[in-house]
Design brief:
By secondary structure, the protein is an all-alpha fold. It folds into 2 domains: 28 residues, no CATH class; 55 residues, no CATH class. Helices cover 51% and strands 0% of the residues. The protein contains 4 helices and no strands. Helix 2 packs antiparallel against helix 3. The longest helix is centred in the middle third of the chain and has 16 residues. It is elongated and about 50 Å long.
């Protein structure tokens, strides 16, 4: 946005932290949780069209990254899926 001269600063418009590609997913500023959850519903709908264990693993990895916690591997039933995503 700064490069296109649509904003004067590179700070996140929701929390004023320095913005990066990673920050866009992890920002906890006002309104971001609702936006994130709505986007995750779209991802979930798309993933539901494939193998369920892979969908569960991908969703778990996205949420664990956003919240800076270890993935809850015990939620994934398939040992094969656990091995692939770890």
């Amino acid at each position: 946005m700064v490069r296109r001269k649509e904003r004067e600063t590179g700070a996140c418009p929701r929390c004023n932290e320095s913005k990066s590609n990673i920050h866009i997913v992890m920002c906890k500023g006002p309104g971001t949780e609702a936006t994130f959850l709505a986007a995750m519903e779209t991802v979930q709908d798309w993933l539901d069209q494939g193998p369920s264990q892979f969908a569960l693993a991908i969703i778990e990895l996205i949420h664990s990254h956003r919240n800076q916690v270890q993935p809850r591997w015990h939620l994934i039933d398939s040992h094969e899926t656990q091995q692939i995503v770890q």
